[in-house]
DNA sequence: ACCTATGATTGCAC
DNA sequence: GTGCAATCATAGGT
């Protein structure tokens, strides 16, 4: 700014352009012979334009010459005035950027997945929860879990190193541009506001690159997750003995086929599966039985007989009288069977 | 290759 | 949190 005010005071010196020591003998000759201010300004402008076509050394020399020129302050102030006017029109275009919802979504997701934010918790916790829900043998889930964690850590590491690289590049580039503009502000009018705007533009550009990084990181996490979930979906049928144990419980508790937490734990232990798998099994069984009782009739009869026989054996062993097989008071409909086990 | 059975997941209601 | 209902995806049988 002080540059500009200084230049304004020099505006009165337009007349003294006769001796233009700008290093071009041709123009000097022309200026000297013509001696007209208008022509002089034209020449100087032409020289300024010609700088871009010259070698660096030549240009430096010419720049220095221009900087030392008596007319420089005057021209500078004129440029300042013009600039002031154009800045007004630019100001309308300039908009303060609101927080991008897209980038906020990505940030939230990366935070939730444990990619950004603190090292512990987040993703590993999510993986642990997922692994816990997965069921299956504990070894399997722990292998999947650690695999998932390792992959997530890899993504996390790449993300952070890339982000750091971008941030470094951004600050380096910003510094470079700012230095360049400061340097240039000696020869052309550049207000701090303009520098600020340029910095903002650079930051916007880099943040759009960052958004791409965030986007691709999110994609990678989603793919990893879906693979992990797919792995969980890979199921194996329970072994025959486990199914038998579960069916026995189900049909002997047909009036109320809702095992308690303790019962579930016991069944899980007996069958070599998790409690949640027991819950899943009962959930599936109840709904499928209810939907098509006819289809399960045979199975129901089979297990009813089995239970009855077992009970009879137990009671015989205990030298006791007959035992009730299935107390059925208003739960799921009991199968129709004769005491000897036939339909 | 197709069909059925079955374990797992998801969305919803309570 | 639990159970229901619908659905997905795979295992296993033909």
TrEMBL record:
Domain (PBC): residue spans on this chain: 36-230
Subcellular location: Nucleus
Composition-biased stretches (Low complexity): 1-11
Keywords: Activator, Developmental protein, Differentiation, DNA-binding, Homeobox, Nucleus, Transcription, Transcription regulation
Highest taxon, organism lineage: Eukaryota
Main location, first listed in the record: nucleus
Start and end residues of each Homeobox domain: 229-292
Transmembrane segments: none
One Gene Ontology molecular-function label: sequence-specific DNA binding
Residue ranges the UniProt entry marks as DNA-binding: 231-293
One Pfam family of this chain: PBC
GO BP annotations, alphabetical order: cell differentiation
Role noted for this protein: Sequence-specific transcription factor which is part of a developmental regulatory system that provides cells with specific positional identities on the anterior-posterior axis.
Protein name (Swiss-Prot/TrEMBL): Pre-B-cell leukemia transcription factor 1
UniProt source species: Dicentrarchus labrax
Record lineage: Eukaryota, Metazoa, Chordata, Craniata, Vertebrata
